[in-house]
Task: inverse folding
């Protein structure tokens, strides 16, 4: 008790003589979540403005003698003519491991009913991205656990890989699967020396509440929640909160990077984010340009995605990987927002509606998907078995279109078609079931080495599942060897040959 | 209703024309207004409104509103005035107000800068310190 009294006393004496200097303004117009304020001559861009009654706003438009401000709460009770003041502070959110396993709103307030957040610090929502000198080239993989992606479109830590496709083509599922896979890897390797866990942040922008609830339930059921932060700004939230949510998520990710750890952020999705920003700009009466989006929407997304990086050893070796999602309309990637984001990211995973409805799920388009880092983000074992796959499959897609018309194909064409059809089958993968890298390696090795050539295409999936099961239950030692070496050495090749010979005799 | 870019630029130019040595010049202001009314350029009402706003803000920059909980005595007033004019220039206009809600101390507002040493402000700060700690 006495210490509280002492503290109070020292605080009061600290107040005694000081005169505060502040910068004030008068609200001229308020409504629809924005305020126009006259005065505030000293305000900074993105500074928090304090309104009476504990309401805060964010200064976004700085004009001659007038400031446009978006409100971070309920404007009820604030009327024209009231005085507001600058705070000298930027909008900040709680960061740290205490957020793992939690669902928070844009401002970092818990919305999961699990009590207060135990934050390590607070970070400003807007921050300058690490300079080019501090960055390190991408070399460590993010294992998505989705074979088509890890084999053909590898993602590296610190990269920005776009997931793009029409509505309901499995975009969110790819992101959720990747998060689940990180949790599995983290759990399996907990405490091993040199192991770098990858923590996930899922930012839901403009989603239906039911969609967020579904993703949350899936993550919870898969045991992935303890390694994941969910930032939720659903469709029912204000445009302001939807606009800011990705930046809050980025701040939370940066804390991991600054502390030498790795984080993965999913922005689901930036199309809805752009719409929210358009609405905010409209309310602020900013001029609009192409497709009615404000002129700086490109800058909005580039400054968000610039914050993903891998910093060098001197700066702790941490990373933030971004998986932004974009929804296209009728596959049109040349619309304004898709082109923008494609030009900012390091590659894209392109999902096609046609493939999805043909049952090829995940509906990854081989021709249109790219990874700009390529095999630099693959471990050697994957490189060894997947090196040619993308080319083989692309060739298959080309030839398959013609093959329907001609019956007598030359031997070479026929072998490309046979191989391709089998790869397509192997890459079909049910949702919420990411695969371990060593399982992928054995599967692709078996295919590359002809062990599936005599299996009918419609039996490939069955063969694959039984083979995976065989390795998991009977050949754990081989899997462990691949896992530890990270490459297929001669003795592993011998082990694989022996295992496949045994499996083939028993398979029916 | 909102001024377009060109009209805004024109207004800013008119405002610049109304200054002598960086300070508003009454004669120039009335000349500008007369000219605009006579010429009636496109959206001139909007231009005049915006011009009026800029002039009002400029006037406020050189006007001090001094609030105190109880009326200041003559000596205190003179001292304060001298200090403010030393800092903000001889042409600073002043306005004194008595606001018992300050509880004690002074609050001075010049343009959008506020210097507050009132008891009310100190209590408010203490409150935020205690509730946000
Ligand atoms: N690999 C898969 N195997 C089977 N079903 C899948 C697969 N991937 C996605 N689905 C199903 O397809 C549907 C759409 O998936 P998802 O919600 O991930 O798509 P989306 O592109 O994010 O959709 P939206 O445009 O609504 O955001 C869901 O019902 C999901 O369960
Ligand atoms: Mg989705």
Result:
């Amino acid at each position: 008790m006495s210490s509280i009294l002492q503290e109070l006393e020292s605080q009061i004496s600290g107040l005694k003589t000081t005169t505060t200097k502040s910068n004030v303004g008068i609200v001229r117009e308020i409504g629809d979540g924005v305020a126009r304020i006259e005065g505030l001559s000293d305000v900074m861009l993105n500074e928090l403005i304090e309104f009476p009654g504990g309401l805060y706003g964010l200064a976004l438009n700085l004009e001659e003698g007038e400031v446009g401000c978006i409100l971070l709460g309920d404007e009820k009770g604030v009327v024209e003519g009231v005085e507001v003041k600058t705070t000298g502070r930027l909008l900040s959110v709680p960061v740290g491991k205490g957020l793992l396993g939690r669902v928070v709103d844009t401002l970092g307030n818990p919305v999961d009913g699990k009590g207060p957040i135990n934050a390590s610090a607070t970070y400003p929502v807007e921050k300058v991205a690490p300079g080019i000198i501090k960055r390190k080239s991408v070399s460590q993989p993010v294992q998505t656990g989705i074979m088509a992606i890890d084999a053909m479109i590898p993602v590296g830590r610190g990269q920005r890989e776009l997931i793009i496709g029409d509505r309901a083509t499995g975009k969110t599922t790819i992101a959720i699967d990747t998060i689940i896979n990180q949790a599995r890897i983290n759990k399996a390797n907990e405490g091993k020396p040199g192991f770098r866990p990858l923590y996930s942040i899922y930012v839901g922008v403009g989603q239906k509440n039911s969609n967020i609830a579904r993703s949350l339930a899936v993550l919870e059921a898969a045991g992935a929640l303890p390694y994941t932060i969910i930032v939720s700004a659903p469709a029912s939230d204000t445009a302001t909160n939807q606009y800011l949510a990705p930046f809050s998520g980025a701040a939370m990710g940066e804390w991991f990077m600054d502390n030498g750890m790795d984080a993965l952020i999913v922005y689901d999705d930036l199309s809805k984010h752009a719409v929210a920003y358009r609405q905010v700009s409209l309310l602020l009466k900013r001029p609009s340009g192409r497709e009615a989006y404000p002129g700086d929407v490109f800058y909005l997304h580039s400054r968000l995605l610039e914050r993903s990086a891998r910093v060098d050893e001197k700066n702790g070796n941490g990373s933030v990987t971004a998986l932004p999602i974009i929804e296209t309309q009728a596959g049109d990637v040349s619309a304004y927002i898709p082109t923008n984001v494609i030009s900012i990211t390091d590659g894209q995973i392109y999902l096609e509606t046609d493939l999805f409805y043909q049952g090829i799920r995940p509906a990854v388009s081989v021709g249109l998907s790219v990874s700009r880092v390529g095999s630099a983000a693959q471990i050697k074992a994957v490189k060894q078995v997947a090196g040619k796959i993308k080319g083989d499959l692309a060739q298959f897609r080309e030839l398959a279109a013609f093959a329907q018309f001609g019956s007598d194909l030359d031997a070479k064409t026929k072998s490309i078609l046979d191989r391709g059809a089998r790869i397509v089958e192997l890459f079909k993968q049910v949702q919420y079931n990411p695969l371990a890298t060593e399982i992928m390696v054995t599967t692709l090795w078996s295919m590359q080495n002809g062990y599936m050539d005599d299996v009918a295409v419609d039996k490939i999936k069955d063969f694959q599942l039984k083979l995976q099961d065989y390795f998991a239950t009977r050949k754990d030692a081989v899997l462990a060897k691949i896992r530890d070496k990270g490459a297929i050495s001669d003795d592993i090749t011998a082990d694989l040959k022996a295992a496949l010979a045994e499996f083939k005799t028993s398979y029916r | 209703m909102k001024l377009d870019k060109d009209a805004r630029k024109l207004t800013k130019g008119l405002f610049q024309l109304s200054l002598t040595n960086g300070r508003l010049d009454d004669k120039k202001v009335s000349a500008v207004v007369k000219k605009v009314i006579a010429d009636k350029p496109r959206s001139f009402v909007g231009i005049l409104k915006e011009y009026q706003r800029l002039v009002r803000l400029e006037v406020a920059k050189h006007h001090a509103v001094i609030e105190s909980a109880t009326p200041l005595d003559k000596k205190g007033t003179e001292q304060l005035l001298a200090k403010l004019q030393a800092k903000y220039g001889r042409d600073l206009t002043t306005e004194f107000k008595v606001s018992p809600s300050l509880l004690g101390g002074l609050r001075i507002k010049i343009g959008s800068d506020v210097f507050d040493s009132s008891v009310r402000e100190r209590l408010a700060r203490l409150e935020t310190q205690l509730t946000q700690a």
Remarks:
- Residues A 171-172, 268 surround magnesium ion (ligand 2) (CB under 6 Å).
- The CA atoms of residues 41 and 64 of chain A lie 9 Å apart.
- Chain A has 16 helices and 19 strands.
